[in-house]
């Protein structure tokens, strides 16, 4: 099993920064939502960031080396998780920082695939190892993160049961859905699915599966696809699902969807903050890092 987890935290957080009139947020929470990377918003006990809880679950799952991809203005991460660029000790986790630089001519980052490519260029040891990748603004369970460590498939992703996600149905309907064969090998990813095609995308359990950006990759075979990732024609970004599909097309039967049925708390917009705070209060009354 591999010990490396790469956390994507260099995005622009544009949806979180949109204006919203909410009576369940304090001025401080609104200010943090407007100014901080989403994973650093203080939603936990004593105002600790959501990222604390993700790191706790990563530790429980057995990860040792954490690479956090931050933006060019991401110095606040170092106030929470270590002032050095590499090898900070945070509750027994070894935390290093990669920086996602914005290319000339752009005003915002170039997407998740670009973020990971810049990270493996800065930490080339990952290109000869296996590693997991996830978002900083989702709280994946320790069980799901462990499943990524345990799988023997070269590449994998957590294939969440769409019906188990506790989001508004309109929001869920926009999630891209995965098409898996009878052995849960990835065949295709469909963005913006229409209701007419849903039956064609049900897996062997009759479930519609979606990705929440929790992946496991083989560094040596993924590198070329990361480097050569095309730009998405609509969103003008380089995205990890594109990399994954290009890898599958070249190497069929190397990417498994691991079925999971559970909710994944998410900080996308200001409206999510109160929900995540309640979730953490219920399921994580204390942050217990153990010995």
Automatic annotation (TrEMBL):
<dbReference type="InterPro" id="IPR005835">
    <property type="entry name" value="NTP_transferase_dom"/>
</dbReference>
<protein>
    <submittedName>
        <fullName>Nucleotidyltransferase</fullName>
    </submittedName>
</protein>
<dbReference type="InterPro" id="IPR029044">
    <property type="entry name" value="Nucleotide-diphossugar_trans"/>
</dbReference>
<dbReference type="InterPro" id="IPR050065">
    <property type="entry name" value="GlmU-like"/>
</dbReference>
<keyword id="KW-0548">Nucleotidyltransferase</keyword>
<keyword id="KW-0808">Transferase</keyword>
<dbReference type="Pfam" id="PF00483">
    <property type="entry name" value="NTP_transferase"/>
</dbReference>
<feature type="domain" description="Nucleotidyl transferase">
    <location>
        <begin position="34"/>
        <end position="240"/>
    </location>
</feature>
<dbReference type="GO" id="GO:0016779">
    <property type="term" value="F:nucleotidyltransferase activity"/>
</dbReference>
